[in-house]
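# nightly structure sweep
# worker-07 picked up a monomer target from the shared queue
# config: single-sequence mode, recycle default, output format = structure tokens
# input follows
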Amino acid sequence: MAIRELEVVGFTENSYGKTIGFIEEDLILSFNGEELYTVDELRERIKTNTASKVIYTVLRNNQVITISGESIPLGIRFNPQTSSNQSKPSISVSNSEVAVIDIKMPFGSMVVFMVKWAIAAIPAFIILFFLFTFFMGLLGSFIASQ
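# output follows
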């Protein structure tokens, strides 16, 4: 599932989007039934649309609503942390090998991931410790019998 970049965080002066009913924290999901994920997709659809009326599907307070209006620029500011101007993870592919160049992970998520990894690693270390002890005991008894 792709990340949606269309969270409304503000409006320009005389914003058409505000006039037709958009509010801050709305998340634009689709334009005339076509799903949107990026600001660039929204701009392109507004620019190339020929219908006089359009319908935006919006997620507001965990409820899906529709807002209708004309296909003109909305004058909406989107979340700068998810806008298309932000750097995206870069992926290089060659010979079916994938190298992730840049991943941005919130600190809290990273801590949870590391704690889960550490908890999962404990049984592996215990098993390795007992295997090492067992083989050292075998080696010691083999040397003692010589």
